[in-house]
Queue: 3 jobs
Job 1
Amino acid sequence: MKKNYLLTPGPTPLPPEVCEALSRPIIHHRTPQFQEILKEAHSGLQYVFQTKNEVFILASSGTGAMEAAVVNFLSADDTVITVEAGKFGERWTEICSAYRVNCEVIKVAWGKTVDPKDIAEKLRQNKKIKAVFTTLCETSTGVAEDIKSIGEIVKDTDAILVVDAISGLGAIELKTDEWHCDVVVSGSQKGLMLPPGLGFISVSAKAWKLQKDSKLPKYYFDLGEAKKAYDKTDTPWTPAIGLIIALNEAIRLIKKEGLEQVFSWHRKMAQATREAIKALGLELFSPQAYSDVVTAVKVPVGIDGEKLVKTMRDTYGVTIAGGQSEMKGKLFRIAHMGYIGEFDIITAIACLEKVLYEMGYKSFQLGAGVSAAQQVFAQK
Amino acid sequence: MKKNYLLTPGPTPLPPEVCEALSRPIIHHRTPQFQEILKEAHSGLQYVFQTKNEVFILASSGTGAMEAAVVNFLSADDTVITVEAGKFGERWTEICSAYRVNCEVIKVAWGKTVDPKDIAEKLRQNKKIKAVFTTLCETSTGVAEDIKSIGEIVKDTDAILVVDAISGLGAIELKTDEWHCDVVVSGSQKGLMLPPGLGFISVSAKAWKLQKDSKLPKYYFDLGEAKKAYDKTDTPWTPAIGLIIALNEAIRLIKKEGLEQVFSWHRKMAQATREAIKALGLELFSPQAYSDVVTAVKVPVGIDGEKLVKTMRDTYGVTIAGGQSEMKGKLFRIAHMGYIGEFDIITAIACLEKVLYEMGYKSFQLGAGVSAAQQVFAQK
């Protein structure tokens, strides 16, 4: 009879409207009925992406959409910039390398943000750079990049700006068109409050020009084919029908609230979480750079980080995330993204306090974190 | 208040157990809870595939799994055989060509099956052929290939046998191991009674040997990475969690019935459908070669095939499929696959009779098709 709470940076909890939509009888995809649904999904995604560009829906996880962002715009031996500030920045380099695209890697210490000037410098040195691959919110560190400033730099070059917005889209600000983001990829299981299984990718006019010259082999992720189908409100392959139906429900919820309101709610949840963490005497992984998507916290000295996460989840039903790759066991991460409310944050902090106490970390008064979060939520 | 009935060859109707599973709260994928689910899914798929090989679960539609079957085992300039007996056989050639793999195409007229001897002949002529790409059931024509005989031929060569079992797996017999099928791909939305969004692929020891030499670029569909994760009961990227949870429910239903019983039920439904069609004086597209998955019927002279399908669907709520590609408007197709029962077939035939009458095709007595189907269902 354990009650479960999910506060991970993907998947995020499903609103009841989404659960209900997922349980409906399935319909066929080559019908006027589904065309109506697809049309609504396309325009709903344009709203969330803040773009007039086409946003394609792929039956894949976010990594598939990232691959689409590489194979559709590049050729072997092209050179690109990849910004690596964590596990997901590194993924850009891995995908490009798998397709023999040369990467000029800008390595940033985990927990830090890239200096846009470093990107400008590299673009100045090598005029042949075709694309700049970045990450809106690096889930592994909880840090958001300054995509707006990067956009200002890249727009005046021949390169396209590619943004991995898998974590962050629909949770924090990303103005695809206004910030000159040529290709934005995302996934369903984060700010969009759906189960994983859908990838999204938007393509600007500047990116379509590159697409015409791209020679990398592709079939399933071929956006040329996707575009032909899109123009007829169709998909080239069988789409993930059920998830797209649920997507419309999720976007309807976001629209009802309004994007601005959704973003400010995420800001508030993030602030409450950070204040709670500080009130417990714990250290934020990155006090200067952070995002309103997920908060990464250093595991205090003497505490087993993996056991902390495991106990919260398996004993008390509160699932947060541990550290990834080089930060395994050294971090824990509390997500405040999507369908997560004030009292989910309170629950997570209360459970964290409880397990820290049990594990012998007691340099705070029980309730101190919860109280700090409550104070943030009480502010207008 | 129109009641809807789905008799298309993918997606197929969802059992209530699947709908319920899809509507559950989501759980995180890097947890012991999900590992249990994934373990059950892997062994359940081995049961349905009738194999001891690993069966990988991809977040993609069936076409993604087909692409995985190309990019993991081949290199550019390799030569393969593709059997084209319809739209989905042609897809093998398209994917191979996109990756610059040379295809020796065996073209078979739509509605016919390949003569296994033609495959043997080509393999004899060119010892460098790396793979033979076939289709278990060609959805566009309703015809099943003799995979068993093809397996007997291919097993004694250096080539691997690749089978597109997207339509057919879990509905008609396919003995992956016993028939020497090295790579079998499938999807979720057919015999497995799920929404689309999962691709499956099994890999034999012979295929793994080819995989080691494959130089085609890949990342998202890289089965080498998938294998490393599989061995730890994990996935390389975020899996389509909700669909995998529902997959276990679907396979539980299949297991409860038993594969043999499921296959004989499909045989019965197919026979009932064919007898009904004949009783209406209509012509089967392929009277000698057919499958127990979907029945393709020639649109009678003077009748608008597209309007027939449209009226059944939009006026009466019964969704069947029209013809694809070169058979557009010339065929209609009634699926009898997955969670479709006796009275769904009766409904489809009754609706077909009604609409044929309305459209002026009246060379049968109303009820003749239904009666013929009933007689088949009444047999022990």
Job 2
Amino acid sequence: MAKFQLNILGCGSAKPTPRHNPSSQVINFRDNLFMIDCGEGTQSMMLRMGLNLNRLNHIFISHLHGDHCFGLPGLVSTMALQGKGGTLTIHINKDGAKLFGDMFNYFCRECPFEIKFNIIEYGDNIIYEDNSIVVRTIPLKHRVPTVGFLFEEKPKMRHINREMTDYFKVPVYKMDAIRNGEDFVLENGEIIANSRLTKDADPCIKYAYCSDTMLTDKYIPTIKDVDWLYHEATYDNANEKNARSRYHSTTTQAAEAAIRANAKNLIIGHFSSRYHNEELLLQEARAVFPNTILANEGLKIDFI
Amino acid sequence: MAKFQLNILGCGSAKPTPRHNPSSQVINFRDNLFMIDCGEGTQSMMLRMGLNLNRLNHIFISHLHGDHCFGLPGLVSTMALQGKGGTLTIHINKDGAKLFGDMFNYFCRECPFEIKFNIIEYGDNIIYEDNSIVVRTIPLKHRVPTVGFLFEEKPKMRHINREMTDYFKVPVYKMDAIRNGEDFVLENGEIIANSRLTKDADPCIKYAYCSDTMLTDKYIPTIKDVDWLYHEATYDNANEKNARSRYHSTTTQAAEAAIRANAKNLIIGHFSSRYHNEELLLQEARAVFPNTILANEGLKIDFI
């Protein structure tokens, strides 16, 4: 079975606590690792979670607050020490490319792999695409320009209905076309509809990362119908004023985003350092959107 | 009793391991904190070791390898969040001031304290001085320009011999002069030698931090007669070639530095990631210099 797995490396907010690391996650998509945000200490969490740095080729940075990017220089230096080859692409805004580019030029002079910056703009844009997956930016609303990231599987091939293809003697060389939805034409000219020869493809899973942001309608269309939504819930409802003034979300606002987006599952994270546990946050979010779970360092979720 | 205490926050080398953090230490001198080096994760170790960020006003960076400085942006950002006031002085070379200056300008725009860079040059120079302590650079030899740091207490006042000052009726207003070594003149003109009125002052403790370096005679004069020497011992003796090619030291070379400097005590650190424990390193160093201990995260040593 193809793998599409989320790994939570850090789900705290700016102020460090002994309980949480700053923001970072890794998507393991068919054993290729995609990192979202890279707070300080991320490389240690990679080690602790058994994630192989050599399989990491793309890092996506949501915005330039330290708790989302200060782990980059250490992570990249360690990848260089470990002799990673090929290319590492860092998807980041223009200012970030300049600042971290200067750091890498100085500290990673003997880097055995190429470091490429893909400059991302604010908005809903495709920033990465391969045969199986597309990554888009999500236009969030925070104190500084911030985007989330939508990971969406590309449409998959339909499943062959073996009994029927045997019956109609579909030749092997036609199978890929049939999997892609083509009808089959018999020698006598009769057309066999694809729907008789195949069963539905597996659904295309969508995962959205929305942190940091206050709730607005602007980003809802991009995350419509996601299977899994990671949404920040920095504060409980009693701290709504704090959330507003800092351009963050409360638990109820995170849950509201899940409802508006018609998400199937919600993961809340980016917890303020003021909470000694997150039970209250979970209760408040579940009261609005029952399919909610808490992020936690070390959590792995298999989307498929 | 005045405090002069060493706190080890990290004593690993460049490659991260689950056992060690990259280099950082804090000197607690009479409740003022002086940090030496600041690898990634240093701010977390400050928190774990109960060291108050508001009492940290000076950071000394030995050289620009990531495992000695990548914790700076996160540490300074957190100090800003916590509302530290006054001035933070970062003693660092010119390149470091430029690189980290750019980072602070971007990420710490609303910093409530002033960040000052004190540009340090290679050599044996006084870089900090107050009424009680002097800090000098130590000219080490590494792949990039590197200095160690010598922390030396200034001469202290002599202890009054109360019996004698009572006997000679030394007035209170003369006491500070007597403590500073002056003789006392009686009304009849007779001179009472200071040595009869006072006892020796407490000794002035010296601590030297030498990491990273290969062993050379160049830095020995600066660290002569130190009470405590922290010296890197990245490798065991069997890896002497590795040590030489990377401009690091072996255990025996660290011990040899302690002997040449006539140090009283040696702490070895900056352990290569290859060791699953440091027993071999300790044995090798002790075979040459018995007063050796291993650094370890969380270790506190009271020099007085």
Job 3
Amino acid sequence: MKIGILGSTGAVGRQMIECLEEEGFDIEELRLFASNRSLGKKIPFKDKEISVEVANENSFEGLDYVLGAVSNSLASSYKDAIVKAGAIFVDNSSAFRLDEDVPLIIPEINGEEAFKHKGVIANPNCSTIISLMAIAPIAKLTKINSIVATTFQAVSGAGVEGMKELNEEIEAIKNGEKVEPKTFIKQIAYNAIAEIGTIGSNGYTSEEMKMQNEGSKILGLPDLKVNCTCVRVPVHRSHSISLLVNTEDELALEDIKKEMNKFPGIEYKEEVPTPIEVANQNNVYVGRLRKDLIDKNGISLWCCGDQIRKGAASNAIDIIKYIEKI
Amino acid sequence: MKIGILGSTGAVGRQMIECLEEEGFDIEELRLFASNRSLGKKIPFKDKEISVEVANENSFEGLDYVLGAVSNSLASSYKDAIVKAGAIFVDNSSAFRLDEDVPLIIPEINGEEAFKHKGVIANPNCSTIISLMAIAPIAKLTKINSIVATTFQAVSGAGVEGMKELNEEIEAIKNGEKVEPKTFIKQIAYNAIAEIGTIGSNGYTSEEMKMQNEGSKILGLPDLKVNCTCVRVPVHRSHSISLLVNTEDELALEDIKKEMNKFPGIEYKEEVPTPIEVANQNNVYVGRLRKDLIDKNGISLWCCGDQIRKGAASNAIDIIKYIEKI
């Protein structure tokens, strides 16, 4: 297999390299692309070192897959060249996620849809992946009518810069220095910021609408209604989500737990999972499963997953594994 | 006025002293009680210093009010002596909150109920106070049917020890030392713990059931249904809550904002409030007001309030002010 990675020096790109190595893929060639700033940088992969290149429209010839870990605008600018070169573009940006001819894939949930691709497969939003992994076993038992989600999102969602900003602020506060947010709109150390992305005319942020729009597409439920509140918290790399799911039929908790224990990629825990404990793991952890006190068809739960892994890099790798039947 | 404070050296007790001083109450006598460990300790109040006493059953003679900032068991052990002495016991513990003959008071919402007391008035749970302050203006416009709440609770909810534990863990992690949680069930630094209190047979924690039981009592709505998830986050002293309120009638956001701007003790902000910004203030801040995307009668919002002030100490002081018409 010949694979390229766009944005290979960012938090998600580096995790993609690590995941490829862990999975033990038989990789004939790995091409690493990044911006001019990283040109020539050497990145270890297996027993060799790979020099970082700056991508141009001829860079993708001969590749089977290109993994995208760049901005929407960069992903858009490279898309045609990747497709023209005959590679499959597994893209982590939100540029193509809602396009009708682009499958939006969480392999454990709708992997078969991936085969309908026309050169581009989109990797969903991080909080959406982690939430839907937790909800998927319930969706196997009955129809999901609505989801109320409140997220506790790690700073890694804003990349390497986000993680750096949290650490720098903690240090500045300790030294009695002034905190000057750059990556986040307000101080994130010892704080919680209930605004991620831009606020739209309906009062929801772009990040919150991803859970609605991508959730509906991935679950194949055009009528699904989602109420989401996305909050940034001072956690390094795992997202947690408090979920209330309303279902068509009333379910027994024991049946849901059984389904969760069968479902690949998730682990149900009687002890509450926390974001620190699930860091650096590909699985999504679920706990606090209980019946809603408002509606008999409601189910509440808490889930945590590594944002850089299953929320981004490892889900993209899982898409390749699904297609290649690895 | 003659006032006593039980637990005067804890986080809430110390804040009560500070609030009494700020409010400029004409206080003839202030008696400060604490455990043996603090006996004789001198605490400044206005232009003098007060020596900390250990309370006994004769300590409350002549007092008009005793403010309680101690555990349920200590509050229970002193209650009879306080009532017998003729003082009004404004208690912050959860020991008496659901007792039928004990008013549970947020003065801005149900202050008149306070006059029905039989010697004891209970101060509600911190997250419940902050949430209900944000919901109260909506409750003035129509009936509240249900509330879905996800809390982001500061470590101050576990007192001085909780705040110390967060700081010590941050330092330990920086030094590469092992973190050993004592006050919290897991590491709180860079983490989020979705379990506060003990888990009951319905799967909800004792902390989560307070929002249901106390919310229903304070709002005077026996049929109110609450789905709550309480989460501890690494924030020092302000709680934040993501709320979804379902109402009997459909409301216009502009009407709610108007009501919020009129309501005492809350401030509606177009810019998202964060817990750091509301620290050391008595007001509760509300933001992110928007219509639910699931039900036309749903309203979503985000609120933040200082846990030690309006969540505990200043609400207790507000109860005295309401009764004394100050």
